[in-house]
């Protein structure tokens, strides 16, 4: 789907109009291409006194062959930074928050196009001191505000790292520093303690893994299948029988296999469990992408619209999870990933059924993540915002334009943006990342 405004804003005449009228100015986002460096430009790293993550961060930056500076004085003042990374774990009281200002104030305007800001902290709920907890919680407001101030496709994230989880940073920092996170900004992620085995090849971290993707025949599901296959997984592509032709095309293209199945049928969980066990010896990654919309305002919505949205988007996922987990079809150390939505965070007019179901997906994450920790199974969700798909192309013009512009990046995302985020959750290196809901929305103005 063509974003005509974005094309206009990039033209010579459009650039002048955008500047003079103060209109949204969507930057060209840098998205991942094979062979490109993880981070584009030098990385400035700083730390508050008593910060505990410096060694882990510097080791990671060395591993990705980044040019690392630890003082702004080392840099050419005319040069642009690819990323600004700050270890705020040493901030123990509100007065210490001045360390954020001290580090970022002199350099924030030198962040390059598509630059990255990453703040690292300690989960407030793990701290015994109320003052430490307050100071660490304050990092969220800072990071989200910075995400709205950086320009030209820049993003900002806050990563809370539990004490003892310092060695679990690699997968998350690689994702947020890279072009894979192009449409993710203003997010807060928690990394916990867990056994993590880093992949032998970061370009193919899912080699030897089996991944199930529901709703894989088109749109976001198709993109997920492509990215997981690119990362080395054998992808089992699932969709309803009516989508069989498109499903086969996707599976053939990614070197995967197909399952034609209505996931809402009573027999679906058992059929799927048997198929995965008998054909593939189980499954390592399960992505619950299948979903529908049946929009009407609540007073005009009939039973069928309500029930079908809840059943496809939430109840079918729960029933499948129960069987796959009960029968150990999902391997220990596996990944469960759900598709929520910013509608499940903030609600949406005419979508009480959809918003309810997508908030329920967040509930699945919160309920299962602690319960499955002992098995090493992580449970996370992605909450997309406005993503350019066949469905959003049918939205009325002015509503569609509002959806595109009402975020810090002033544009819609692409299915690949959702898929890259899911691939990060699916990585063996993300074993400490569980219980998270990450919005892929360009830091939408809706929701938190």
From TrEMBL:
MF annotations from Gene Ontology: 3-oxoacyl-[acyl-carrier-protein] reductase (NADPH) activity
Keywords, alphabetical: Oxidoreductase
Gene3D superfamilies: NAD(P)-binding Rossmann-like Domain (3.40.50.720)
SUPFAM superfamilies registered for this protein in UniProt: NAD(P)-binding Rossmann-fold domains
Keyword Disulfide bond: no
Domain Ketoreductase stretches: 209-390
Superkingdom classification of source: Bacteria
Cited SMART domains: PKS_KR (SM00822)
InterPro entries the UniProt entry points to: KR_dom, NAD(P)-bd_dom_sf, Sc_DH/Rdtase_CS, SDR_fam
The keyword RNA-binding is assigned to this record: no
E.C. designation(s): 1.1.1.100
Protein family: Belongs to the short-chain dehydrogenases/reductases (SDR) family.
The protein's name: 3-oxoacyl-[acyl-carrier protein] reductase
């Amino acid at each position: 789907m063509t974003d005509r405004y974005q094309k206009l804003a990039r033209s010579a005449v459009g650039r002048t109009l955008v500047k003079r009228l103060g209109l949204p100015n969507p930057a060209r986002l840098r998205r991942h291409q094979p062979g490109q460096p993880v981070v584009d430009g030098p990385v400035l790293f700083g730390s508050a006194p008593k910060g505990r993550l410096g060694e882990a961060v510097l080791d990671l930056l060395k591993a990705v062959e980044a040019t690392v500076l630890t003082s702004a004085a080392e840099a050419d003042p005319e040069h642009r930074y690819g990323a600004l990374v700050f270890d705020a774990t040493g901030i123990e009281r509100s007065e210490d928050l001045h360390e954020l200002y001290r580090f970022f104030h002199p350099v924030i305007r030198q962040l390059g196009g598509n630059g990255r800001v990453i703040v690292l902290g300690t989960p407030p709920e793990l701290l015994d001191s109320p003052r430490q907890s307050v100071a660490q919680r304050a990092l969220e407001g800072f990071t989200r505000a910075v995400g709205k101030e950086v320009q030209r496709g820049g993003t900002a994230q806050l990563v809370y790292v539990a004490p003892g989880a310092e060695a679990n940073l690699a997968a998350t920092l690689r994702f947020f520093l890279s072009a894979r996170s192009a449409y993710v900004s203003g997010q807060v992620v928690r990394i916990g303690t867990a056994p993590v085995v880093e992949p032998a090849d970061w370009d193919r971290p899912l080699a030897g893994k089996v991944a199930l993707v529901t709703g894989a025949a088109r749109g976001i599901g198709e993109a997920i299948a492509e990215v997981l296959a690119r990362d080395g997984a054998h992808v089992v592509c699932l969709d309803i029988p009516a989508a069989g032709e498109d499903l086969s095309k996707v599976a053939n293209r990614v070197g995967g296999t197909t399952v034609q199945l209505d996931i809402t049928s009573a027999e679906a969980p058992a059929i799927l469990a048997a198929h995965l066990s008998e054909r593939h010896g189980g499954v390592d990654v399960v992505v619950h992408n299948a979903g529908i919309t049946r929009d009407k305002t609540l007073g005009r919505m009939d039973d069928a619209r309500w029930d079908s949205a809840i059943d496809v988007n939430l109840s079918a996922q729960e029933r499948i999870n129960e069987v796959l987990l009960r029968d150990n079809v999902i391997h220990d150390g596996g990944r469960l990933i759900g598709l929520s939505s910013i509608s499940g965070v903030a609600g949406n007019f005419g979508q009480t059924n959809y918003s309810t179901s997508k908030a329920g997906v967040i509930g699945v994450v919160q309920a299962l993540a602690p319960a499955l920790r002992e098995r090493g199974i992580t449970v996370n969700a992605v909450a997309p915002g406005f993503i350019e798909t066949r469905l959003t192309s049918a939205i009325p013009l002015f509503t569609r334009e509002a959806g595109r512009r009402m975020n810090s990046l002033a544009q819609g995302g692409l299915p690949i943006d959702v898929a890259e985020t899911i691939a990060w959750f699916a990585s063996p290196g993300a074993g400490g990342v569980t219980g998270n809901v990450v919005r892929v929305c360009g830091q939408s103005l809706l929701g938190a």
